[in-house]
Amino acid sequence: MDWNGKYSYNFPTLVRFGAGVIQELGIYLKECGIKAPLIVTDPGLKELPPFESVQQVLKDANLSVSSFCDIHKNPVKSDVQKGVDYYRQSKCDAIIGLGGGASMDVARAIALWANHPDNDLFDFDDAKGGDRFVINEIPFFVTVPTTSGTGSEVGRSTVISDDETHAKKILFASSLMPRKVFADPELTYGLPPFVTAATGLDALTHNIEAFVSKGVSPMCDGIALEGIRLVFDSLTEATLNSDKVARAKMQMAALMGATAFQKGLGVVHSLAHPLSTVFDMHHGLANAIMLPHGIAYNSSTSESRYKRILKYAELPGDSSQDLVKIIRELNKKLGIPSSLSKLDLDWSEQNRERLASLALEDVCHQCNPKKVGLSDFKQLYTRAYES
Ligand SMILES: [Zn+2]
Question: Which CATH class is domain 193-386?
Fold first, then answer.
């Protein structure tokens, strides 16, 4: 770290954490003067108990509750347009993002667009400095995660794709930080083992990639290290036994991962994103399979960082190879396939080329400690398929 440099840090998210905190949501909104909140969630979750509990809590506080769930797994602009229309028609005065990454992204994008009727949603594209268009007040916005992985509940950006081209746009504004996050591990008790494992390994990847990324942030480094320790301490128990304390630790590790990756992510996320675009693969699963390869790739630049992870998390060994071995063993225990070849993918040359070029376009690897080129991406995908 260059101690003569100049840096900006931002850690102000208000988080209410713990089993049962969701019971406070209705009263909180009422005290803030809210009368008609809109719950934004995905169609799957709408049929499950967490949605029911949240709706009940709001009704118990005599709030007029509406809900919107007409969204895609990889949300597109027309989802957001429908949500904004619904928000206006229903005369809502607050937005609750309930669920995993997709719900949170759409909820945040509705909040961004609702009071900016003269703009196109993609005016807010972060790549074009879109936050300069955010001039009006953002509706009252809170988040309630129901998985422990993405950590998007503590973020200020949202990823929405173009309906036709599928190009992903990152929309960012500092005012998109939720007023409050209600992180209640009870809402994750019913998650099936695969979702627990895959989302948990996403949280692990966020913490590890943030810790070794090129960014400069000792605060993020500290958060990432403890986040990593919590995952190794609890993910197996959370997945195999749905242990309540382990579930709480994983929820915290997910919050920490997304807080830490303000510093940056790396090659693993750039490898994972195209696997979701091309094969519709679960984001956490893609990260879980690519993580050992990303660590091996970065070992020449980041060996001392990987050693620090082992030491801090009290894991056996003292090299990046040992960390790779530990992650492979963890994946195995959690039922994650060791190789892409076990996933019945169309591994044609055309798809392989497409994966590598999408990975190169992805922004995450710009923070990777070691430069990654097109041939490196090709080689990493091949290794992950042939290993
Ligand atoms: Zn991720």
Answer: mainly alpha
